[in-house]
Amino acid sequence: MSDNAPEVLISEDRIQTRVAELAAQISSDYGDIAELVMIGVLKGAFIFLADLSRKLSIPRTIEFIAISSYGKKSAPSGAVRLVMDVRGNIEGKHVLIVEDIVDTGHTLKYLMGMLGSHRPASVKTAALVRKAESAEVDVTIDYLGFDIGDEWVVGYGLDYAEQYRTLPYIGVVKPANIQAR
Ligand code: PRP
User: Fold this and answer.
1) Which atom of ligand 1 is nearest to 165's Cα?
2) What percent of the chain has pLDDT over 70?
3) Which helix (H) or strand (E) holds 178?
4) Within the chain, what is the greatest distance between any pair of CA atoms?
5) Which class is domain 11-149?
6) Its pTM surpasses 0.85
7) Span 111-135, mean pLDDT?
């Protein structure tokens, strides 16, 4: 690992333990439903979705959705635009939206409304991390991995300028790391 690797905030072991706990809870809650449709929000959710889905003991299918947000925190409107929709029909199905991180909450709120309009049997949410202090809108996270502070986190799907997504842990990027890369 290079000297400027991000400082570990949540270790690989802690992540894997928590993901297994979440998967056990989800498997128990959904019980004997015919199928859970897991919808990963690109790009960041791809690793969490992969690990979580492989640990479930219930039938599941995988979809992806892509959105684009404008300006993040600098845009109070939190405008979010759909870039790629799910391929399958979710009407009458149980849907679990899978996010890597919930920051302001605008993305998840938009997705819940948009997917809800397709008349699924239910819509629930899972997120690996939440920046509780950054919330601008109220959104329910049914399955949450960790609460974190207002830091720039990378790894386990999360990026800084498209870097660091494949780190096995969640780390904090500090200005020194960014300049040294
Ligand atoms: C991140 C994350 C969420 C969104 C959360 O995506 O994956 O989708 O931001 O932010 P919010 O709660 O403030 O709406 P990002 O825009 O960084 O795209 P990426 O997943 O492709 O990296």
Assistant:
1) 22
2) 90
3) helix 175-180
4) 51
5) alpha beta
6) yes
7) 95
Q: What is the DSSP letter of 6?
A: P
Strands 122-131 and 143-148: parallel
Instruction: State in Å: Cα 34 to ligand 1 middle.
Output: 30
Tokens of 105: 């909450």
Domain ranges of the chain: 11-149
Q: Going by DSSP bridges, is the β-strand pair 153-154/143-148 parallel, antiparallel, or unpaired?
A: unpaired
Among 100, 133, 137, 167, the mutation site with the greatest number of ligand 1 atoms within 8 A of its Cβ is 100
| DSSP run (H or E) holding 12 | helix 12-30
CA Rg, the chain, in Å?
16
The token pair that represents 42 in the structure block: 């690109």
Active site residue 103: yes
pLDDT above 80 (res 181): no
Which phi and psi (to 5°) does residue 118 adopt? Answer: -90, 10
Residue 5, pLDDT above cutoff 70: yes
